[in-house]
Amino acid sequence: MENVVELKNVTKQFKDFSVENINLQVKQGFVTGFIGANGAGKSTTIKIIMNLLKPDAGEVKLFGLDYETHEKEIKERIGFVYDGNVFFEGLNLKDIKRIVAPAYKHWDDKLFYQYVEQFELPMNKAIKTFSKGMQMKASLAIALSHHAELIIMDEPTAGLDPIFRRELLVLLQELMLDGNRTIFFSTHITTDLDRIADYIAFIQGGRIVFNQSIHDVAENYALVKGGMDLLDRDTEKAFIHIHRASTGFEALTDNIQSVENVFGDTVVIERASLEDIMYYLKGGTHYV
User: Fold this and answer.
1) What residues contact 116, with CB distance under 8 A and at least 6 apart?
2) How far apart are CA 173 and CA 195, in angstroms?
3) Per-domain residue ranges for the chain?
4) Is 15 or 192 the better-scoring residue by pLDDT?
5) Which residue from 62, 70, 77 is spatially nearest to 26, judged by alpha carbons?
6) pLDDT, tens digit, 9 for 90 and up, residues 172-230
7) Which residues form the ABC transporter domain (predicted)?
8) For 214, phi and psi rounded to 5 degrees?
9) Homologous superfamily of domain range 3-217
C-alpha cells in the first residue's frame, strides 16, 4: 500500500516547543485523522508536510518525492483547506479563481463552477462577507478544482455549527468514493473522526503516540473499571493511566488481553473513545 506522505525521524525545534522524531505515514486512498490537543504539534507538522517549515532533521516525502527537487510537482497535487480564510478579504471568488487557476496545470473550470453551485457560494461577494463555513467551502472548492490527490485539512470543523459539520463530513465521504483521493484531517474534535476516518495518528507534546487503523485503535484501547481493592503495584502495570475515586478506579489500557489475564471477570472493560484516549494519555503517554 503506497504512502502519500512519509515523515521519517522529523524534528523541528523552537524556543519553547519542538516536534521530535516524527514518524508518520498517510496511506493513499484513505482518510487519516490527525488528533491532539491544541498546541500538541498538529499545525507545525502540517506546515512541515506543506514545506512551509523546514525540519531541522529527518526526511519528508510526498508521493515518493522530496521538496528539494520536486516542489512544484508536489504542490500541484495538494489541496489545502485551512481553519479560516487564507485569501485577501477584499477579493471575491471570481477574482480568486482568476489569480489561482493559472498556477495549476490541471485546473478545471467546469469542476470549479460545479462546486460553487453545489456549495451555494456567491461569486461576486467579498470573501470577508462569507461565514466561517462558507470560507471553508470556498477553500475546498478551489482545492478540488485542480484535481488535488491529497487534501490536507487543518482544523476545518473548528467553530462550525453541528449541522454544517455533519454536512461537511458527508461531503468528504462522498469525495472518497472514487478511491483516487487521500484526506489528511487535523482536528481536536475527535467525534468527527469516528464518522469518517480510516486511520488515526495521535500527537502529544510534539511526539507521535500512535498511528493505527481506527479498527486497531478500537481493538487495542479500552477503559477498565473496578474496585480499588484490585489495585496494587503489580496489577497497575496493566494500565497506561489510572483515575482513582472513592467509588473505584477507571483506567486506560492498550493491552486488553493483559487486563483479562490479570483481572479475569472482576473488572468491567469498555470501548475507549478517541476523546477518552486523549484524556488519559495526558497522564501517562507511551510514545512510538
Assistant:
1) 93, 123, 141
2) 9
3) 3-217, 222-271
4) 15
5) 62
6) 888 888 778 999 999 878 887 888 899 999 999 999 999 999 999 989 899 999 999 99
7) 5-230
8) -65, -30
9) P-loop containing nucleotide triphosphate hydrolases (3.40.50.300)
